[in-house]
Amino acid sequence: MNLFGVMDVSASALKAERVRAEVVASNMANAETTRTPEGGPYQRHHVVFEAEGGGSFQSSLMSQMNEGTSDGLGGFDTGFSSGFTNDLSSDVTASNGAPGGVAVTGVIADQSAPLRRYDPQHPDAGPDGFVAYPDINPLTEMTDLMGATRSYGMNASAVQAEKNMVGSSLDILK
Q: Which range, 1-5, 76-80, 158-162, is most confident?
């Protein structure tokens, strides 16, 4: 990873946390929405993150071992390689030292059942007088928002530290 790779990683985290904060804001804004274009109450949404790039040492070693031969063993003796690959599959978890950033792979709707409240005067009340509201807990949303805010702040601090490192490096070169 080069010097600016750190900024790329932090930038991906800033983008991801911004999306997370937007989804939380959308959930809180629609906490009382009983009618959507799709029908029914609003469904709470979740953000799904995924690590980008930076394969593990294990995957790199396994791909190197499986290259070049039809048996997929890379020329190793069968007994040795089977024991070795079994050990690799269970024991080696170290990364290659160049982890990537984070990406938002999707925003999914929560499939939990809506909350039912008795409110016969509500225009969306059913014949029994109950209204379906989204299953959104403000405390859960605030906790998610605080987590997104703190993560965003940490990554902004990392970018600032990186900028200071680059500035110091340029000062040394003068």
A: 158-162
